Known about the structure:
By secondary structure, this protein is α+β, with helices and mostly antiparallel strands. It has helices at about 20-30, 85-90, 115-145, 150, 160-170; strands spanning about 35-40, 50, 55-60, 95, 100-105.
Amino acid sequence: MEFCRGCDYSCCGSYSIPLSAADIFVISSEGINDFYYVCEKECGSDTCFNIRGKCYGLMMKMRIDGGCVFMRDNAEYGCGIHACKPSVCAAYPFVSNGGTVELMENRVCPKRRIPTQKDFEEAREAVQVLREEWALHKRIVDNWNKCFLSRYGWPALIPPYIMVQMLIWNVAARLGLFSKGKKQDGQ
Length: 187
Ligand code: SF4
Ligand code: SF4
């Protein structure tokens, strides 16, 4: 996706990045560690792991100055993990709305670039991956929330649970989740 290519502003310092189970699995599979944390959330959405009535999600670690831990001055698109970046980053600033590619509401785009029809078309594949991965994430969360772990588990169990679930799903569901590692383009 070319929309952000050549932009001298990095939006990577403007967001907290939510991570799906597939993001954790794919980035970890590249041998990268220590890039996420489990945090308690207020939202109570269907993307949150429930433990004794509290909600938890996975977020990208931030640098001390507030930017994403993978922000680099000298990397392609400014991203140190471009080939396996989270699906929300690969699709940014586009999202899926019922299968339609749309611009994120409330996006940060200080450059005020206006996407062309070609930008929307180029975003289609990344948005499709985003949609599939978060649908899978919700199923994994749902499995957790329906089992004994939501009563007797603790937050540190969420990452290993995700890895086991992803191994199972990756074999069984054949969703092509490793295609992220082969991606040539993105934000
Ligand atoms: S993972 Fe890469 S694209 Fe995503 S916020 Fe971090 S530096 Fe930016
Ligand atoms: S969203 Fe706008 S400001 Fe941010 S990187 Fe893309 S073009 Fe630049």
